[in-house]
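Record format v2
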Amino acid sequence: MSDAQYDVIIVGGAAAGLTAALYASRRALKTLVITKSIGGQAALTPSIENYPGTQKISGIDLMMQFQAHAASYGAEFAYETVTSLKKENNVFTVATHNATRTARAVILAFGLTPRNLDVPGEIEFQGKGVTYCATCDAPLYKNKTTVVVGSTYEALDAALLLAKLNSKVTLVHEKKDYPAYTNLFEQVKASPLVTLALESRVTAVMGDTVVRKVEVEDVNTHEKREVECAGVFVEKGHKIDSSWVGDLVELDKKRSIIVDPENRTKTEGLFAAGDVTPLRDKQVVVSAGDGAKAALSAYAYIQKQIGKPAVAVDWKHG
Amino acid sequence: MAVEVTDASFDQDVLKSSTPVLVDFWAPWCGPCRVLGPIVEELAKDNEGKAVKIVKMNIDENPDVPSQYGVMSIPTLMIFKGGRPVDQMVGVQDKNVLQQKLNEVM
């Protein structure tokens, strides 16, 4: 049998990944979660009122409880970004910027990633004015000038949140209106602090040590102008960024990782759960259930690998 | 334990410190800061008695220093040595990575 460092490495630390970590570690599998942070999309939700058994809790509190629960059974955590995944002789090698680790099985549960602007200056000024989370960073732009970019509900919400903080906001959107969010758009239009740059797109982010301005292009005339700002809030929705997984998985049209009913991908020993899969409902309880399923499938796979029968029930504590 | 520093104490506690200082800029409403907090506390414990200081600053209560050093996203971690920032990281960081960075400046 292999001499992998871990039985299971789980990539992603939100509802699916943390539940997978709980189930895997309760099966006495040596488990590592590699994640950028804890909680993913759920952590940004101020109040979750539909997680069974808990009437009302903030997203970050619920997610930290998930983490503590998994850690109490021995799951380890590394706060890193995975850069590549390979499989050789039934052992997976998971590389990050900081380390390379091996595992018998891997569960992909890294959820959704904010969609980029894909313009010059964006990457350079990340953390220096370019942000993807209004909930997290808006208070840092109190009384400052900001630009919000996007066609999403979150873009409108960010514009209103910033205006409440007395930020002078320019909302940049490629279309004429927001047909899906008419009411919210009316509120944005009514705000004296929000200037609309409709049928426009951001084509560059500029600054020195921090963001100073963006270049905005009219999509019809292609005329360009500069808008001064201290912050750029990118609210263009989310994508599944599975490029680093390579050809170990098959993707559908939306670039979701295709899995069978037991959360198996096309590569033996590689599983996926939660929002990276075509799972329709983006809900904590759904992702958590999916993570549990993936961990139990990984457990069954590892038991088969080492020639032991899979125990049919979840172990009791102690 | 990571000591809380303020706009008023920053000069004395950080800039004039004889040892390098790691500052965790955080706020109570920031989820990732809640994840990073215990990691920074563990780091402070691991480095007790060593030639390094680990402190934190609530940016809600202390707007001046974060603004002066261009803290635009939190959590932000900065390492100061000899009164000047020598490293800056945004987002949750692994304890091992932070320890390595401290070892480099100690």
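Chain B has one domain: 3-105.
Residues 31-46 of chain B form the longest helix (16 residues).
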